[in-house]
Amino acid sequence: MEQERKNKRKDRIKNAAIIFLIVMLVLTLFSNTILNFSLPQVAVVMPGYASISEQIRGSGTIEAAATTDVKINEARTIGAIMVSVGDTVTEGQTLFTFSDDNESRLEELQVAYDKVKNEYDKMLLGTGKDYSLDELEIKKLEDQLAEQKEALSDLPRFGAAYEAAKEARETAEETQAKLERDKTDIDGIITDLAGGNYDFLDENYSKQIEEIQNKIDTLTQSKADSDERVADLESKIAETGDVDLSSYRQALDAAIQAVYDKQDEITQALLESENADGTAAITAGDRLIQLYAELADLQAKQTIAEGAYNAASSKISTATGYKNRLTSENGYRKNLARQIESENKKLSDLRIKINREYRAKSKDLADKIAELKKSVTDLTSAETEAKEDIPGTESEMSVKVRDLEYQVETAKLTLAAKQETDAAAAGQSAVDLKAKKDEVDRAKAKLDEATESKTGGEIKATTAGVITTISAVSGQTTSAGDTLCSIALVDNGYQLKFSVSNDQARRVAIGVSAEVMYYWYGDASAKLAKITNDPSDPSNKKLLTFTITGDVSLGNSLQLSVGERSADYSSVIPSSAIREDNNGKFVLACVSKNTPFGSRYTAERIPVNVVATNGQSSAIDGSIENGVWVITTSTKPIAAGTQVRLQNS
Amino acid sequence: MLTLFAGLSALIFLLPTVLTVTNSFMAESEINANYGTVFGTAESGSKIFMSDKLNLKLIPDMVTFSQYITVLFKSPDYLFKFWNSVILTAPIVIFQLVTAAGAAYAFAKLRGKLWNVLFFIYLIIMLMPYQVTLVPNYLVADTFGLLDTRWSIILPGIFTPFAVYIISKIMRRIPKSLNEAAKLDGASEPQIFLHIYLPLCKSAFASVAILVFIDNWNMVEQPLIMFSDSSRYPLSVFLSQINSGEIGLAFAVAVIYMLPAIFIFLYGEEYLVEGIAYQSGVKG
Predict the structure, then answer these.
(1) What per-residue confidence (pLDDT) applies to B282?
(2) Which of A114, A329, B158, B227 is the most exposed, fewest CB within 10 Å of its CB?
(3) CB nearest B245 (choices: A14, A596, A623)
(4) Chain A CA closest to residue B41
(5) Residue B106 belongs to domain spanning
(6) Do B59 and B174 share a domain, yes or no?
(7) How far is residue B207's CA from residue B273's CA, in Å, rounded to a whole number?
(8) Do B249 and B272 belong to one domain?
């Protein structure tokens, strides 16, 4: 029993050990698989040095670059509104109609004025006095006053015209003076050229002349050398003299013949001496001796004749050589002479060309100066006329206007006083008279205003565009100066605005192009047109206005991205590596620790500040050290302290 | 009183083991908080709580298997080193038993001055610590080109005198009469060895196997000296280094490390007791 229990226990232990080993084996075999499954895999990057062109992003609605308000300058009753918001209108298109008829209104005002005027006149007539002349005088003064006021208002125009004429005249005179100076310079050059002085020419011509002259000098020098050589050859040929080779030849032939003859004679004498006996032999021998001596003498003479002949021959061949060289040299000299002549002709032609050119320039300048003189004369006249058109100085004219106003007022008051006096004499109340006079003036003012506004039965569009707002409703009675609607002038282009911080605004420059993002309806482009204060927060924000071109229309929303001037940063990482929580922005650094288990990698939180970003990359600063690997992406969500494994590790 | 004293002593001796086991179920943060001051495990950049003094905690605040999960599922190196230990220890145990059995039989059978001297030499060698023979072993391994190979550890481990001593002691106690009886029955020497001596020495073999296993399972110097490649290190070396790196996992690593030795011991406990008793002459 005990043994059985022990055996069972041993079996259990054995099984447990086997299971343990099997589990360890399986875990070992599948360790990498399990590791890959359990640990998140991360991609890391080391912060590096890079340039970032920080993108400023913003969005807005496309609006017209320019709008115009349609206003009314009198009180009218709106009848019908012929357009609605978003409609495209053309110039002259009816926008609003009025339910009140302007013509009848004018007529009503006129009638009212006439009526009240008649009443006033009747009141005056009640006095029995005629004030027509006084009124005429007042009218005359008023007309003069109106003229003077008009002249005063036109004064800036006259002044501007005079200044313009003066400036034109002065400009023309300056131009004339300049041209005259140029002509003087050119005439001076022409005089120098005539005197053979080409030093004042421009560089191009001077260079050409110098080149040709140098060539001529070189050729001339070569010709001079050639002439020397020719003279030398001729003298050598002369020294050689005429040699008659034939005489030397004859002398030589004669000497040779004499030797042959003597040899024949000797031969004969030898034969004879062989045949001779005794004293004949002695005689023959003596003769032979004599003959041999003569032969030797003749041979010597032959040698001399040969020498003379050879010397003569040599002399002749030397002379021939000289002659050949002389012929060749003469040919070379002729060639040189031709070249010199050609170059001289070139030089002469060039000088003629230069002369002609400068003379043409001078003539052209003279013509221009003549024209300018005429223009100056005309401009001077125009200036004088413009000056005469100026009625006077502003102060003088203001004084005149004031005087006339005073005169008009004085005349009116005088007339009024007179009328009062007469009315009082006729029993009319001065107060009533004044009141009626005021009524007349008011009626006149209304009538004048209505006449000036010239508003008819409808309001038309003064320009083409798109209706953006309508501020009036049908049946509404407007006041003078009310805005009835706004028209966006689409022909002037589109714009888009959005607000950025002052710091961001400092990083962009006017004219920089912006990228239109996420727009798939066609091509669109944007360019920064102006930077202004944002009305909503002028101290902290700026409003960026972009000019939009391309396939866009009013009301479209666009998102723009504009890059600032790029700057270099020492720690740049992908933007995907930057995370954020309640404690701010941070990155997860992959920190490796060498352990007995091998290199373990854990994610460690490092707080950072983003200094600049362009969307893909961000420049950071913070407590990040050199050589730190920043985790950019991971296969699973990770947090600080999580054990990770490197990609493909 | 004595019992109480014995009990207390037992508790004290068991405390490290119990601490190891219970702390293996602690989370890393709790371990760092309790023991970080000893091992200096405050990581730069991350804030962890660390008490100023050492806290020996037997019961974790929160029981978690995170250490075991990390060790078994996220640490392939640990598993490879476990098998390094097995690969080194198993051949040593097996071959040592084989060689020791033969040598012990020889010592048991052969008597004489020469054998006594030889036996004495065995004793002397057995008494020498490993460090004494370390340099000669290294030189021999280098001579035979065995450095950085497992044979540089296994071969010296196979031929140790301790097993010979133990088994020979047991074998000497086997009556010669059995030997003679077997011879009379016509058994040859190998047959006598295999069928008579070996079965009678089972307890000795078990004891030796356990002791040799424990001895070699815990070897540290030999791998450090003979191996230059740390991937060949056994778990014993690994565990000695773990405390400096991954204190949070040290306890789980230690528990798993203990298990094979515990299994071996539990399996052969009775033989060990029997062997010790036999040695001491106490009949158990």
Answers:
(1) 44
(2) A114
(3) A596
(4) A593
(5) 76-280
(6) no
(7) 8
(8) yes
